[in-house]
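Late entry, written up from scratch paper. The run itself happened at the end of the previous shift, but nothing got recorded in the book at the time, so transcribing now.
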Amino acid sequence: MKQSNLIFNVIIAIAVVVLYILHFTSSSTSPVFAGASDSTRVVDATAQTVYVNGDSLLENYEYFKKAKKDFETKTALTENEITAKRTTLEREFANYQQTGASLSTDQRAKIEEVLMRKEQELRAFSENAAAKLQEEQVKFNEKLFDKVSDYLKSHTKGKSYKIVMNYTKGTGILYASDSLDITTEVLKGLNEQYKKEN
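Output as recorded:
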């Protein structure tokens, strides 16, 4: 399981935000500052469609960074376990190749049967481990989407936003004005929420 799969799947999950339409009737008339990192930019308070830069969100959202690190650690441990089992089995095969000629036909048949069974068990273990990691990845993607989506529901109350889009390369959006970028304020809120939860 490569870490790029995790990142790709999470980006896909965040991209679903593009389709998520928020229905609110109240609006805000005061401008909202995007954040300390770009205090000269003001988000258009009357905009109904705004966006979050998905790449920046993933790079700077503490929950995602910790989960990614934990997942990479778990993946590495699983890969190490598989490698250790494979190395042990390869040694057993090599030992059998060296000593097999001196064994009787029945002894060779029994050893070959054991080695084949161990090889099948290793294959099954590897497939199960990969499936578990994939399942965990899918659950994490859903949880990440829910966290961002739930936060956006509460964050957009009292604002004129009707659609919050995900703006990343390859999403089909070629240009979006900085006045519609709410990434900084959303990221700040998500990180504050994460700190409170932990």
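Residues 1-39 have pLDDT under 50 and may be disordered.
(Scratch paper discarded after transcription.)
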